[in-house]
User: Fold these one by one.
Assistant:
Number 1:
Amino acid sequence: MENKKPMSLTEAFANPKAGRDSSDCKLMRVRPELDEDDQRTLDKAVDAIRADLGNGKSKTYSVAWLHRVLKNLGHSISTSSIQRHINGSCGCGPTN
Ligand SMILES: [Zn+2]
């Protein structure tokens, strides 16, 4: 284990993107394991799940759905990892 000294709050405040790394995102680690078509479809699926949020009706595309599909393909990822990516709170989240 790397024993890196955590940033001070002052440093973190000055560099809010520091320490964010797409390798922290489990979904982006699974992505290269998919074939090319499925990588593109994964991006579309993420957009579809995001678009489906806040809709009172039952979701067509949901985190649970994507989790089930990926699991069936033999990828180990948790629903919370997918949810973090959907929320943009993962390492590769929005850069603004
Ligand atoms: Zn992500």
Number 2:
Amino acid sequence: MVRYSRLPFRALCRKFNVDVCFSPMLISDSFINSASARDADLRSNAEDGPLVVQFAANKGEDFAKVAQMLYGHCEGIDLNCGCPQRWVNALNYGDILMKQPELLADIVLQARRAIPDSEFSISVKTRVFDDLHTTIEMARRIEKAGATMLSIHGRTHGERDHPVRIETISTIVETLSIPVNYNGSIRTREDAQLAYESTGVGGVMVARGLLHNPGLFDDRRLGDPEVLTEWTKIALELGIPYSSYHKHLMYMLDKVTTRPETRVFNSLQSMLQAVSWLRERNYIYC
Ligand SMILES: Cc1cc2nc3c(=O)[nH]c(=O)nc-3n(C[C@H](O)[C@H](O)[C@H](O)COP(=O)(O)O)c2cc1C
């Protein structure tokens, strides 16, 4: 998740049963050409695995180059063909690639050729088309190009909070041999279990559900004090900016605090203020 699934948040999710973390989407071109962009965007450490680093790419050479740069440093790279945002599509990144199946396949193929070691995962994330046949053709093509995993956000380009197309995901699972991940509107561990059982997917990918409840896969409730305490410890250990610590807590406390509490919490200006406020109300233990 852009701005959110950075090292500290990944460390928190890993403490509470998340198996594999994805980095925020990085722009392949900037990653290749700018050392400062690499340092700013991709902080990691020895405990930060399994890690998949996700990219926006629109050229096979770029995706192959980032594969070479990251081989041996993480478990895999992912091509984001699920992002529908206008500025992303304007650069020929994101889900606009779903409409260019030859280019999409070539991007995957070039990275796979650059790193033939199948232990290094080269995966893709897509949305779905309205038409099942077109979706299946795209998924087949991605597998044929050498992808090791496919994550499906079960909505079309134009859909936001529409129901996830569970049948389409099931059909993709039945058709492909590689692991397929389910994505979309998972809020609880039960939701994840149901998605897993009803489609036979290899994994369940969660974004907003984890922002609100990083303990979701550990059956924690929203606002669990152990989760909030762990977040505070990680923030202090890794030295993250206050704005990032606070923004994550706004998500984690969103459905937990009363309205007047939320107003006060949102106005706090420093780590010291926030930690004292949380401690006084028993939201954290440390
Ligand atoms: C703040 C935010 C940032 C996101 N950034 C990314 C990203 O970098 N890469 C990506 O593939 N999807 C990104 N997404 C989309 C999610 O991965 C996911 O496909 C979508 O939110 C639906 O899943 P969910 O219901 O679990 O949130 C982002 C979503 C949010 C809310």
Number 3:
Amino acid sequence: MRAMIMPVITAVTLLPYVTAFAKGRVAVEAESAVKIESPMVLVTKDKVPSGLKFIPGASADAYLAIPQGVGNPPDNPNGSATIEVDVPTDGNYTLWCRVWWDDECGNSFTVKIDDSPPFLFGEDATFKTWHWIRYPVARTAKPLSLTKGKHTITFLNREDGVSLDQVILSADKRFVPVDCEKIGIFTK
Ligand SMILES: [Ca+2]
Ligand SMILES: [Ca+2]
């Protein structure tokens, strides 16, 4: 009898552990944005807005940019992109973005998820190369708590001279994007 009961007890005790380490992520191209407001622009290898130079190495040869010199708040409060994502599971998420920063006055966005209060994204010191950065930065900080289903991520103009290539929301704390990442919804 004892041998038959034990496995049942083990399975029940493991459940909270599994939930706490929920995985899953959604990865999209920034240029899949459903709404792009000037001076945020779409840049593709074949169609580069005047005054801009195409930055090679972007996934799918396309990205979003706020060109250097167009101005930023408070002088120019405009410029945004809204991206829709389908979150695979309820969970605590890290936002990862593949970005290109021109310089220390072009290394951040203001980001909003749905109607959440806006937060500062970026301000790292890696310039003139495509690289991945995350929010929240510290693993101890409060992650983004999201429900399964559709959500919008809005990138707002905070500094000009910034580009955005890919966007990932990941519930897996151990997931770290490397180069151009596969697009899609991953449940493990
Ligand atoms: Ca700038
Ligand atoms: Ca891209």
